[in-house]
Design the sequence.
């Protein structure tokens, strides 16, 4: 029993001596590493804010500005950690090799995710569209609400939110109509009516809508000569967030205007000729 107690005391004494020796030999290094790390965090935040202000001053995209600022901050913190480890005499070479191997594995596993980030970076740099623009990609249309490094968010008039991974945007055909979207419609009038009169009536109906811009001006003209009617086509721009609302109102206004002007909108007709065989 006494032997076990003595062994325990010797173990405790050795541990205490090791702790004391560590603090005697490395106390200044520990304190210095803590001070360097804290100062490094302060400097990293300060420089990151300076970079962010500089990007804002140069009118760099908000998402790209935050990305650059975060990268600068992380780079400075990584350098500070390397300096702190050096204070303890720890070689950083094995850590660098391990980080490289891990990065390679993650890169292969997350190849699709990183491709989205790469595409997002390309979008932010080239700026084929910005927040508030109306874009159409692969028959998907909407107003750009937010551009992130991994994906882009679109809004629709129906309140739907469409999330598109950026890798499905870069390399595709992008139609950007900015804040507006074009409406293309047509109405048929009788061959007994004058097309010029119908065109004037439709132009006047379109001019009553403040939502329809005058530049570019609406286009109205003869679209086609159908079997039962002369088709009058009309095209105009409307704000994307009110696309269907204005379109339906315009169609009703055009119909009422044609009715008031006694311009006939015919229905499909067929002429049937009966012949009697000679007896």
Sequence:
């Amino acid at each position: 029993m006494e032997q076990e107690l003595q062994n325990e005391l010797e173990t405790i004494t050795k541990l205490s001596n090791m702790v004391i020796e560590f603090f005697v030999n490395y106390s200044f290094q520990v304190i210095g590493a803590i001070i360097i790390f804290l100062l490094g965090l302060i400097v990293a935040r300060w420089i990151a804010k300076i970079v962010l202000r500089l990007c804002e001053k140069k009118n760099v995209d908000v998402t790209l500005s935050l990305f650059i600022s975060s990268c600068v901050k992380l780079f400075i913190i990584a350098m500070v950690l390397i300096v702190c480890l050096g204070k303890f005499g720890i070689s950083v070479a094995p850590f660098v090799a391990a980080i490289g191997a891990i990065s390679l594995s993650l890169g292969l596993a997350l190849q699709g995710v990183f491709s989205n980030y790469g595409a997002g970076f390309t979008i932010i740099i080239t700026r084929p569209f910005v927040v508030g623009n109306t874009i159409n990609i692969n028959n998907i249309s909407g107003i750009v609400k937010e551009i992130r490094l991994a994906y882009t968010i679109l809004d629709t008039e129906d309140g739907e939110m469409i999330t598109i991974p950026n890798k499905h945007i870069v390399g595709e055909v992008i139609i950007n109509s900015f804040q507006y979207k074009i409406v293309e419609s047509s109405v048929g009038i009788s061959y007994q009516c004058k097309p010029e009169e119908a065109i004037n009536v439709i132009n006047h109906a379109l001019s009553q809508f403040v939502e329809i811009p005058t530049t570019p001006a609406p286009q109205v003209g003869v679209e086609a000569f159908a079997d039962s009617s002369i088709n009058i086509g009309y095209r105009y721009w409307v704000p994307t967030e009110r696309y269907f609302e204005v379109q339906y109102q315009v169609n009703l206004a055009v119909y009422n205007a044609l009715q008031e002007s006694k311009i006939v909108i015919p229905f499909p007709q067929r002429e049937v000729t009966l012949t009697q065989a000679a007896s």
The beta strands are 134-137, 140-147, 151-155, 161-165, 174-178, 180-189, 219-225, 230-239.
